[in-house]
Each structure stands twice: as C-alpha cells, then as structure tokens.
C-alpha cells in the first residue's frame, strides 16, 4: 500500500512513469523516419515581430544551455498567428548585450 502511494506521488509530482518513458522513447525513435519531404522556409514574412513571447534559457552548466522560444506574432490566437509549415530558425549567441 505504501509503495503504490509513493509511486502515485512521484507521478503526480512530475516523475516519469515507465509507460510515459516508453511513449517518449517510441516517439523520439521515429524521428529519423519522418523524412525530409517538408522543407523549412528560410525567408518567411511576418506581419509583426514573431518572438513576441521572448526567449527563455535554463539548465545551464559550463558546457551547455537549453534555449526555448515560440514563434508567435499573435500569441493570444490559438495557433499563435503561425501556419503549420516549418520555419528555419537561426541562433546567434554572444557574450555582450548587442
């Protein structure tokens, strides 16, 4: 009884269950088979600034960092003001403020 309560608590607090891990693993392992039939647009046109939600970073250490953003010229719209076609995004990381 205590053991199942602990498992439920871990799952409730954001732990990864075996079932969820397998679902993630299956999804990630299928990525190479998606193919290159959908090419990303390299020069899209936006009606307004597409990074309206900003850029977030976290989980940094001396060798790496996680960067997150969402292209959303209209962030309150259900689709964020974006079509479903892929968009190529380039990153420039610098030490200064410019």
TrEMBL record:
Q: What are the record keywords, sorted?
A: Membrane, Transmembrane, Transmembrane helix
What InterPro entries does the entry give? PhoD_N (IPR032093)
- Any stretches that span the bilayer, and where are they? 21-40
> Has UniProt tagged this entry with the keyword Phosphoprotein?
no
- In this chain the Phospholipase D N-terminal domain maps to 53-97
Which Gene3D superfamilies does the record cross-reference, listed alphabetically? Purple acid phosphatase-like, N-terminal (2.60.40.380)
Q: Please state what the protein is called.
A: Phospholipase D N-terminal domain-containing protein
The organism named in the record is marine metagenome
